[in-house]
């Protein structure tokens, strides 16, 4: 059996490596540099361990489309970002679908793992494949399975970047298919690598389930962010409130913070876009997005207040900014709210240095990225902002950070509750 996985990112790469233990797998990506690295068993996302590469004996990485022809399964795992106007950007998905359509064979199964709004697989991707390949889309309305055609499925990814516990082989895998025959094929494929399989009633249901997973999380964080603003005015520590409320058995534990990345801050817009297209304008989802999108401005306003209170000028103020990936323990800086905040600090003419021991970049928006305290001047900074704290470096950060502040008058901003309450001038 020949399997092609299109997109070698957070989703596609771990999946391709797992599948290659028992199947022939082609890992395809348009990024030539990435393919060259993967051929050397190098994963710049740090999501895949070396031993996983070593176990994958039947995988071939390529950017050459001639190698993907006539596969039994095509799995699409490309990014689905949003445009500047917050509407879905399906360009990469459509390009991947066209690529599949040009290389598909009779009876192939096309599976989307990319997050999309309900209806994308069957209303957008399937027609593209049908038009280019001239193969019929075999679904519940088809009379026979042995006709000249192709099947579709939607099997949503549940990858949590930086999480080594909830990996693909340990979580429940949701699958769906265009008909029962397709479901059987897809089930046989994924049960070879996943312990738990849940069969969704339809492709649209699976698409909807995936999109609300991140939407729910986004709304829950938005609620806590709004509560943190209220508690700040009431002079109550939010994290102490959450610790107290968390003693109840059914209290859901979420914490305030900036919501970035390519999932939680993006996926709700896919749902609201589809919702509006059928005549319903959502309120709660968009309200949650507005709150979370505005958190960097809220934090900035509080930083400015503290500067004024301590009579420190923002102009040419020296700030050490800790962590600029979109979340802890990942290398990815796409849609990072930390970088958004850094840009706003720069507009106020502050001089910002960045310390991030995990990301691959040496520069972020023309700012040098320090990889350790060793390269940083002691007794130099007017302020330290703790934004993203990678687990590996927590102890050293707590131990060393005070050495790099000018004096006791200087400012400590704790966005993620890293320090004890009384050790910072502001924390969410």
Q: Which short descriptors sum up this protein?
A:
alpha/beta, Rossmann fold
Q: What low-confidence regions span 5 or more consecutive residues with pLDDT below 50?
A: none
The CATH architecture of the largest domain can be given as: 3-Layer(aba) Sandwich
Number of strands: 16
Q: Approximately what portion of the residues adopt beta-strand conformation?
A: 5-15%
Count up the helices.
Answer: 13
The assigned structural class equals: alpha/beta
Q: Spell the H/E element sequence.
A: EHEHHEEHEHEEEHEHHHHHEHEEEEHEE
Mean pLDDT: 93
Q: Please identify the top-level CATH class of the largest domain.
A: Alpha Beta
> Which strand order does the major sheet show?
3-2-1-4-5-7-6
Q: What percent of residues adopt helix (DSSP H or I)? A: 25-40%
Main beta sheet = 7 strands, parallel
Domains, number = 2
CATH topology of the largest domain: Rossmann fold
Task: State Rg.
Answer: 24 Å
Global shape: elongated
CATH superfamily of the largest domain: NAD(P)-binding Rossmann-like Domain
Q: For the terminal residues, how far apart are their CA atoms?
A: 52 Å
What is this structure, in a nutshell?
The protein is α/β, with parallel strands linked by helices and 428 residues long. It is 36% helix and 15% strand.
């Amino acid at each position: 059996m020949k399997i092609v996985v299109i997109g070698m990112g957070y989703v596609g790469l771990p999946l391709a490596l797992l599948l290659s233990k028992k199947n022939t797998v082609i890992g395809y990506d348009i990024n030539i540099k990435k393919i060259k690295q993967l051929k050397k068993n190098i994963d710049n996302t740090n999501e895949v361990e070396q031993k996983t590469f070593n176990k994958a004996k039947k995988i071939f990485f390529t950017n050459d489309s001639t190698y993907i022809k006539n596969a039994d399964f095509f799995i699409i795992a490309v990014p689905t970002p949003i445009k500047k106007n917050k509407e879905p950007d399906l360009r990469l998905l459509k390009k991947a679908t066209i690529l599949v359509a040009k290389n598909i064979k009779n009876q192939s199964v096309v599976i989307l793992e990319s997050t999309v709004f309900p209806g994308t697989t069957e209303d957008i991707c399937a027609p593209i494949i049908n038009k280019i390949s001239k193969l019929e889309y075999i679904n519940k309305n088809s009379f026979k399975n042995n006709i000249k055609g192709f099947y579709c499925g939607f099997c949503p990814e549940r990858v949590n970047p930086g999480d080594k516990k909830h990996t693909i082989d340990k979580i429940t895998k949701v699958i769906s298919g265009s008909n029962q025959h397709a479901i059987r094929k897809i089930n046989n494929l994924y049960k070879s690598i996943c312990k738990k399989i849940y069969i969704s009633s339809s492709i649209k249901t699976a698409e909807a389930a995936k999109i609300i997973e991140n939407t729910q999380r986004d709304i829950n964080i938005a609620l806590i962010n709004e509560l943190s603003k209220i508690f700040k005015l009431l002079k109550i520590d939010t994290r102490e409130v959450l610790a107290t409320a968390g003693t109840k058995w059914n209290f859901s534990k979420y914490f305030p913070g900036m919501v970035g990345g390519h999932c939680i801050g993006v996926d709700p817009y896919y749902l609201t876009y589809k919702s509006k297209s059928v005549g319903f304008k959502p309120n709660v989802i968009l309200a949650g997005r507005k709150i979370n999108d505005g958190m960097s401005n809220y934090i900035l306003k509080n930083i400015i207040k503290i500067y004024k209170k301590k009579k420190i000028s923002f102009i040419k103020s020296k700030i050490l900014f800790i962590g600029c990936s979109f979340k802890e323990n990942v290398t990815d800086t796409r849609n990072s709210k930390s970088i958004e905040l850094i840009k706003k600090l720069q507009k106020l003419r502050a001089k910002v240095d960045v310390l991030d021991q995990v990301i691959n970049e040496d520069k972020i928006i023309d700012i040098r990225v320090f990889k350790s305290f060793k390269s940083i001047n002691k007794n130099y900074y007017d302020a330290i902002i703790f934004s993203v704290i990678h687990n590996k470096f927590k102890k050293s950060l707590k131990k060393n950070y005070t050495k790099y502040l000018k004096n006791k008058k200087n400012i400590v901003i704790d966005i993620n509750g890293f320090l004890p309450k009384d050790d910072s001038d502001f924390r969410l």
